[in-house]
Every structure is written in C-alpha cells, then in structure tokens.
C-alpha cells in the first residue's frame, strides 16, 4: 500500500511545482482553519505574480497577509478583505488586483470546479456590479447570472486529522472553505495536526476523501485569535 502514502517529509517537498503566475486556492475563514505553514512556505519560496483565491487575505503579518509584504500576490479573489491594512494600501495604489465575489458564490465556484462543472447560474449579484458583463437568464420568472467555476493549479488546506492515504477530518468551524478548496486543485496539499494510520479514521466522519489529496504533511500551528473579545467582570 506504499504507493497510496501521501505523506511528504517537509514543506519544501509539499510545495514542489509551484511556479510564478499560478493560481492558488487557500482554505480558511478569517484565521480559522488556514494552512498557515503552507502559506509560509510560499513566502519562503518567493513565488510571485500569484492569483490567490480565498475567502479573505488574512491579517497584517499573518496568514495570506504575509504574501502581500513581498508583493507575491498579483490578484486576489475574495469575498471579504476588511481586516488587512496592507491589502487596502496595495489595492488603492493599483498594485493589487481584486475580484470581490459573494461568499456563497465563491464557495460554489470551487465546489463546481472540483465536481467538473464549468459554470452555474445564481441569482446572487444580478442587477449589481457583480453581474455586469455576465450572461443572464430567467428561470421560473427570476433572473440569474452565470458564474464560471474555479480550478487552481495548487490548493492548500488545513485539517485536524488525516491518515496516510490523505483522508481528512476538519474540526468544528475550521471546516469552512477547506472541503471545497481541497477538491478544486490540480495539486492539493493538506497540512494536519495529526497523522494516523489508515483504518483509524471512522469512514463516516471523513470530510475529504483521500482521492482529492496529493500530498500530506503534519505541522505545528499557532492558531492565532483574530479578534479577542472579553467580558468585564
């Protein structure tokens, strides 16, 4: 069964093949469930002119935000970008191209890409700037716009547990965008908190089947809190 073993020895091996100008899909929501070490490896490699597809772009100095510091991202496809000052500065300066996409539409774009569906119709965005220039049709008396699916050259995700065959389980809210992202990469790399042997994961609990995963690595995570809220005593 050695041929099915997806585990790689280090992060450099995990991101072999990533080149300038590629499209990278990244799981996570805010700082929850982000593949932070894989992102740091992209920074270390110095890969540039990337198109990055993710719900948001991390925060200043952490998550995808670190890729902005060396201007490695050419274009960002996101649904929310409000927590990153450097992102705002680069956008206003014309350094960073941004394609804002409704959150549900972004999730479906990647889910469709992973399912081999090239496009779909959604009512979200019709009659707004989101729908400008896109094909529209009427179904049952309601207007819809056509959105194209997204497939990345690389997809990077973070999971709680994975077995050596690449089957993944996400923990609680860290599930977020990760399952869709995992299916939509030509090469999908997962980093996990714990690697177990095949057969140790309950099949009914698996969120991402190993067929979608090309490389797997165990990492150590900071799990930073994006916004800490406390209650006065």
Short structural description:
Belongs to the 3-oxoacid CoA-transferase subunit A family. The chain is of the alpha/beta class and 233 residues long.
Number of domains as seen in the coordinates: 1
Query: Helix and strand string, N-terminal first?
Result: HEHEHEHEHEEEEEHEE
Task: State the share of residues found in helices, binned by percent.
Answer: 10-25%
Q: Using DSSP, what is the number of strands?
A: 11
Unreliable segments (pLDDT under 50, ≥5 consecutive)? Answer: none
On the 0 to 100 scale, the average pLDDT is 95
Oligomer state equals single chain
CATH top level class name? Alpha Beta
Could you name the CATH topology?
A: Glutaconate Coenzyme A-transferase
Give me the Rg, rounded: 18 Å
Strand % is 25-35%
Determine the CATH superfamily.
Answer: Glutaconate Coenzyme A-transferase
Structural class label: alpha/beta
Describe this structure in words.
With 233 residues, this protein is an alpha/beta fold. The chain has a single domain, classed as Glutaconate Coenzyme A-transferase, CATH 3.40.1080. The protein has helices at 11-14, 36-45, 65-69, 85-92, 103-115, 178-183; strands at 23-26, 50-53, 73-78, 97-100, 119-122, 136-139, 142-148, 152-163, 168-169, 185-196, 215-218. Strands 1, 2, 3, 4, 8, 9, 10 and 11 form an eight-stranded mixed sheet that branches. It is globular. Keywords: Transferase. GO terms for molecular function: CoA-transferase activity. It comes from Kineobactrum sediminis. Belongs to the 3-oxoacid CoA-transferase subunit A family.
Please describe the topology of this protein.
Elements: H1 11-14, E1 23-26, H2 36-45, E2 50-53, H3 65-69, E3 73-78, H4 85-92, E4 97-100, H5 103-115, E5 119-122, E6 136-139, E7 142-148, E8 152-163, E9 168-169, H6 178-183, E10 185-196, E11 215-218
Parallel strand pairs: 1-2, 1-8, 2-3, 3-4, 8-10, 10-11
Antiparallel strand pairs: 5-7, 6-7, 8-9
């Amino acid at each position: 069964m050695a041929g099915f073993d997806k585990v790689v020895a280090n992060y450099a091996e995990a991101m072999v093949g990533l080149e300038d100008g590629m499209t990278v899909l990244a799981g996570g929501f805010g700082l929850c469930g982000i593949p932070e070490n894989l992102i740091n490896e992209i920074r270390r490699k110095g890969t540039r002119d990337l198109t990055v597809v993710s719900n948001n772009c991390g925060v200043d100095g952490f998550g995808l935000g670190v890729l902005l510091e060396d201007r490695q991202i050419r274009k960002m496809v996101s649904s929310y970008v409000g927590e990153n000052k450097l992102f705002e500065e680069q956008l206003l300066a014309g350094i960073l191209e941004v394609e804002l996409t409704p959150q549900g539409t972004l999730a479906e774009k990647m889910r469709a890409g992973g399912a081999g569906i090239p496009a779909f119709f959604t009512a979200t965005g019709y009659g707004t700037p989101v729908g400008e220039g896109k094909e529209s049709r009427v179904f049952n008396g309601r207007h819809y716009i056509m959105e194209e699916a997204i497939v990345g050259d690389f997809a990077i995700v973070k999971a709680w547990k994975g077995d050596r065959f690449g089957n993944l389980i996400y923990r609680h809210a860290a599930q977020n965008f990760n399952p869709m992202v995992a299916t939509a990469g030509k090469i999908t790399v997962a980093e996990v908190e714990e690697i177990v042997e095949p057969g140790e994961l309950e099949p009914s609990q698996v969120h991402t089947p190993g067929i979608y995963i090309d490389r797997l690595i165990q990492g150590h995570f900071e799990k930073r809190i994006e916004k800490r809220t406390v209650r006065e005593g």
